[in-house]
Amino acid sequence: MTRRRFLQAGAVALPAAALQAPRPALAATVQTSGVAPAALAGFDNVLKTYVEERKISCAQLAITKNGKLVLARAYRYSDDPSVPTVSPTSLFRIASLSKHITAVAIMRLAQDGKLSLGTSVATLLGLSTAADSRLRNVTVWRLLQHTGGWDRDISRDYLYLDHTIASTLQVPLPITRAHIVQYAGGRPLDFDPGSRYAYSNYGYLLLGMIVEKVSGMSYESYVKQKILAPVGITRLRLGRTLKAHRAAGEVVYESDQTSKTVTDASGTIVPAPYGGFSMENRGPGGGWLASAVDLVRFARVLDAPGAVLNATSIGRMLAKPEIGVNEGGAWYGAGLWVRQVTGHLNTWHSGGLPGTYTYTARLQNGFTYAALFNRGEETGSLDFDALSPRINEQIGKVTTWPTTDLFPRYF
C-alpha cells in the first residue's frame, strides 16, 4: 500500500520526529547469507545496491531456472542489534502476493468439483443484495479478476477503514471480517460487475470466506493442507498485527508512517506496520508470511500440471477476463498479472504495506524470482519499481546458468 493510499485510508503522516523512533544505523556494507553463485553475481549486486539506496535493513532474493533453485540470498543492512539476522528462510509479510495463493485455493476447490467459478458470491455467502441488486452479478470469477464492482478510488479500501466501520456499526475495535462485510453490504457498488477492472482487497477477503464456506475448514488450514503441503512448503503462515506476536524467524518492519491503532479505541499513535492496519483481516488478500525460496517453489505449481492443479485449472488461473487486455497488452488473471510473450505466458505481481515491498515474476526461458523487503516506498524515497527492470537487465548477461539445485538445502 503506497503512502498516498495509506493516508487516504485514514492514517496520519508523521507529525514530528518525536513520534517516530530513529531509523537503525546502517552498516557500511550489506551483510549477506545464503548462496549466490559467481555466474549470478549480477543479481546479487542489484539487491545490494537496491537496499543501500533505499536504506532497507532486511531483504531476500530467490531465483529458479527451469525449476531448480539457483540463487537463495538474504541481505541485512543495519548495525542495530534489534534488527534480527536474516537468512534465506526468514519470514516476511508478502502483502498482495498472498492473492495468487488464494486464487490457487479457489481453483483447487473448483477442480475438485466443490465450487463453480460462475456462481454468485451473494448466493454462496448469503449476502444481502438490498443495498445494491447488482451484487447478485458478482461471481467468483469477477472477484478473482478484480471486476466485481468495488473501486477503492471511489469508496476507499474497506480493509483500511477500521475506525469508520467501528463507529458506523457501533462495535468495538478491533473489528472482524464479518464487520467489514456488514459495512460493505450496506453500500452500493461503484460500477457494474464485469464492466471494468478495479483492484479490490475486499474482493479477496470474500474469496477467503468462500474457501472456508466451501471447504468446511479455516482458510489457513485449507491452504496449508491442500495447496502448500503437496509441494513441500511448510513455513508459510498468516501474519499477526502486533510486533509482540511476530512469528518465529519473522523479520521486523520499518516505516516512517504512523497511524491511530486499529487494535483498540485508545487513539494511540503507533508505527504503521504494527497496529496501523489489521493483518488478521487482510489474510487472503495480503496476510501471508513467506520466504522468497518458498515463493519460487510455489510458483512451480503453475509451470506444469501436478499435485495441486491440473492443466485446466492452470489455464483458468491465466485466462483473460471478460474485459480483455489493457492498453499494455496485459491482463489480470486470477491473483496474477499476465502477458503473452513468444511461447510463454509471463506472470507477475507486486505487494505493498507500510513496512513491506514484495515482487515475484515467472518469465520466459524458465526464469522465476521473488524479492522481499522490510520497507516500502514512501514520500521522499526512491522508486521501488526500479527493481524489476534491473533484474530483467541481468538475465541477458548470464552466460552460463548453474545446474546445482539448492532446493534440498531449504526444504
How far do the termini sit from each other?
31 Å
Number of strands: 13
**Major sheet: arrangement of strands:** 1-3-2-13-12-11-10-9
Query: What ranges have pLDDT less than 50 throughout 5 or more consecutive residues?
Result: 1-21
Q: Compute the average pLDDT.
A: 94
Overall geometry: globular
Alpha-beta classification: alpha+beta
Determine Rg (CA atoms, Å). 21 Å
Characterise the protein shown here.
With 411 residues, the protein is α+β, with helices and mostly antiparallel strands. It is 31% helix and 17% strand. The protein is built from 15 helices and 13 strands. It has helices at residues 3-8, 41-54, 98-111, 121-125, 140-144, 152-155, 162-169, 177-185, 201-215, 219-228, 279-286, 292-299, 311-317, 387-395, 407-410; strands spanning 31-35, 58-65, 68-76, 92-93, 237-238, 258-260, 269-271, 288-290, 330-332, 337-341, 344-353, 356-363, 367-373. It has an eight-stranded antiparallel beta sheet with strand order 1-3-2-13-12-11-10-9, with helices on both faces. It has a three-stranded antiparallel beta sheet with strand order 4-8-5. Strand 11 (344-353) and strand 12 (356-363) form a beta hairpin. Helix 3 packs parallel to helix 9. The longest helix is centred in the middle third of the chain and has 15 residues, at 201-215. The radius of gyration is 21 Å and the shape is globular.
